[in-house]
Design a protein that fits this description.
Blueprint (H helix, E strand, L loop, with lengths): L1 E11 L10 E10 L2 E7 L8 E4 L4 E4 L1 E3 L11 H8 L9 H10 L2 H17 L2 E4 L1 E2 L6 H12 L5 E6 L8 H16 L5 E6 L6 H13 L3 E6 L7 H7 L4 E4 L5 H8 L4 E4 L1 H7 L6 H6 L4 E3 L13 H11 L4 H15 L16 E4 L6 H4 L6 E6 L2 E2 L1
Parallel strand pairs: 1-4, 1-5, 6-7, 8-9, 9-10, 10-11, 11-12, 12-13, 13-14
Antiparallel strand pairs: 1-2, 2-3, 5-15, 15-16, 16-17
Helix pairs in contact: 3-4, 4-5, 5-6, 11-12
This protein binds N-(iminomethyl)-L-glutamic acid and fe (iii) ion.
Length: about 375
């Protein structure tokens, strides 16, 4: 099956073209099967079986949401309400979701996660990472990842989210790096640790991450969300693909990221929903750090699946330019997942893209909260 998307007003390639986004104007894109086959001036496209008229709208790579926690049951709307009335966010509510998740059936967990994947897809997300972390027992973490695996190839073992109630911290770390890792590794591509105040310290995080690496997992770290600490530098030292959150950074943290292959993944939905100061994206970008944007979708700190919302927040409140934010939400996310087949539009790349009901990428931040995603192609198939 082939398909042409014609009459593209602005094409964001993140490849060859103008500026950071590799912009090209008045284009057409031809898709064959699940891949991009051809990109060129509109009106010159080879014949195809089907045609989509972009009507002068912008076409972008599908968003790559490299950080989401979708295997859970219940929600924490009351906790959100209390926060908006002045209570601080501590991460303590994670245990509430753990209890609800353990009590839920496989079917309930899968239906809830599939609902959120579909919700994200309607908002232009074509690649999504899904973490465990609300099971926190060998059986519940393994089933979380087994279910996540049916929805995405980007699965992350986050048994080290918090120490569950009734466990000694050292015993729990030994469990995570031993029996739980063995049970979860077959369903996981990544291992992650919440290395932060009130969660796991640097030594504990190092022990778990290195055990994951020995089992062939690649690394990512929840780092420096709640306070400065060792998380970011540990991520860089161990060659993690990404350090996520990066809200409280010392100059040494920024320098370490700038000299590394570790992406700083910023999650403005979390600061929005916890009413916390945003990470300083400008400081990171100006220092040469590579940045991704992701939703952190979870029922506690950031219950949004919307990448356009995160782009708008990043532009308005993190002083990113619209081009930087769109790049971070597409090519940045791909880099954070070490993928080169998504996040950019060029022949041979996956045919994952969105058509906007707007003439340029600027509108994603300029028209916040407006449903501008007109068409989504995933694996070359209109959704
Ligand atoms: O990334 N910070 C740790 N984990 C999640 C929050 C989880 C929750 O509050 O349920 C996060 O923000
Ligand atoms: Fe998270």
């Amino acid at each position: 099956m082939s398909l042409v998307i014609d009459n593209v007003g602005e094409l964001v390639t993140n490849d060859e073209g103008d500026g950071l986004l590799g912009l090209r104007r008045d284009m057409a894109v031809v898709v064959e099967g699940d891949r991009i086959a051809w990109i060129g001036p509109r009106g010159e496209a080879p014949a195809a079986d089907e045609r989509i008229d972009a009507d002068g709208g912008a076409v972008l790579p599908g968003f790559v949401d490299s950080h989401a926690h979708l295997i859970f049951a219940g929600d924490r709307a009351e906790e959100f309400g209390a926060r908006m009335a002045g209570s601080p966010y501590t991460g303590g509510g994670i245990r509430t979701t753990v209890a609800a998740t353990r009590a839920a059936s496989d079917d309930e967990l899968l239906r809830n996660a599939a609902r959120l994947v579909a919700e994200a897809r309607r908002q232009g997300t074509t690649t999504i990472e899904i973490k465990s972390g609300y099971g926190l027992s060998v059986a519940d973490e393994a089933r979380s990842l087994r279910l996540a695996r049916t929805l995405t190839a980007e699965t992350t073992f986050l048994g080290a989210h918090v120490v569950p109630a009734g466990h000694d911290a050292d015993d729990y770390v030994a469990l995570v790096r031993g029996e739980m890792m063995d049970a979860c590794a077959p369903y996981s591509k990544w291992v992650d640790v919440f290395c932060d105040r009130g969660a796991f310290d640097g030594d504990q995080a190092r022990a778990i991450l290195t055990a994951g690496a020995e089992r062939g997992l690649s690394l990512r770290v929840h780092a420096n969300q709640l306070a400065e600490g060792p998380g970011v530098r540990l991520a860089v030292e161990l060659g993690a693909a990404s350090a996520d959150h990066c809200t409280h950074l010392s100059d040494a943290d920024v320098a370490a990221l700038a000299g590394s292959d570790t992406v700083a993944t910023l999650l403005p939905g979390a600061e929005f929903s916890t009413r916390s100061p945003y990470p300083d994206a400008r400081r990171l970008i100006d220092a040469g750090v590579r940045v991704a944007l992701a939703t952190d979708c979870n029922p506690g700190s950031s219950y949004t699946s919307s990448m356009p919302f995160c782009i708008a927040l990043a532009v308005r409140d993190m002083r990113m330019t619209p081009a930087e934010a769109v790049h971070a939400a597409t090519a940045g996310g791909a880099l954070a997942l070490r993928r080169d087949d998504v996040g950019r539009l060029r022949p041979g790349a996956k045919a994952d893209l969105t058509v906007l009901d707007a003439p340029s990428h600027l509108h994603l931040a300029y028209r916040p909260g407006v449903p501008l995603i007109k068409t989504v192609l995933h694996d070359g198939v209109p959704q």
